[in-house]
Specification:
This protein has 197 residues and is of the alpha/beta class. Helix content is 41%, strand content 14%. It is elongated, with a radius of gyration of 20 Å. The structure holds zinc ion.
């Protein structure tokens, strides 16, 4: 097979992005082709910069451009509470409520036997290592869907013997959904209504 032409290669790469099918990839590729050079350069620079400068915090796994991240370095955060979330973008959802002043721990996913994601694929060891250093409460803010619930139950079982209070956010967030789509009021209520598990 001959090497695909530049446009074909662009379509092929765009199609690898989540949620982009063959049609969308082709539409985007032709759009890029029509777009002025400077604008395209800004896009490619932004993509490179994300890969060059954004990394993961070695303490909480949140995305950051400095390690440890601003939360883990801050003097103003409550180090007695750790809020556990699945993905870095969930941190922003909780930060939007401006209520939570503790620290975070990002698991980088949730348990999902169907997708072959087990405990070893998640950042659980790091979390267990953080508990015991003055941490009094761990809030399990995994998504209110099957995987998130299973992950919360699994973590509670590991954390409680360590002598820490373990709480689960209230289900003000619609069941089966993703924390990303919870509005600020709902997120605030679910944090406030959290229960010990
Ligand atoms: Zn951090």
């Amino acid at each position: 097979m001959s090497r695909p032409d530049p446009l074909g290669r662009l379509v092929e790469q765009l199609q690898r992005l989540p949620g982009i099918g063959a049609k969308s990839a082709q539409r985007l590729a032709f759009h890029i082709l029509k777009t002025p050079r400077e604008q395209v350069d800004r896009l490619t620079e932004a993509i490179s910069e994300v890969k060059d400068r954004v990394t993961y915090c070695s303490v909480c796994n949140n995305i950051t451009d400095a390690d440890p991240c601003t939360f883990c370095r801050s003097e103003n955060r409550d180090r007695q509470i750790i809020c556990v979330v699945e993905e870095p973008q969930n941190v922003s959802a909780i930060e939007k409520t401006r209520e939570f002043k503790g620290l975070y721990h990002v698991l980088m996913g949730a348990l999902s036997p169907l997708q072959g994601i087990g405990p070893d694929d998640l950042k659980i060891k790091g979390l267990l290592g953080r508990v015991g250093h003055g941490v009094e409460e761990v809030i399990l803010a995994t998504n209110p869907n099957v995987e998130g619930e299973a992950t919360a139950i699994y973590l509670a079982r590991l954390l409680k013997p360590l002598g820490v209070k373990v709480t689960r956010i209230a289900m003000g967030v619609p069941v089966g959904s993703d924390l990303d789509y919870a509005d600020e009021v709902t997120m605030h209520r679910s944090m406030e209504g959290r229960r010990e598990v």
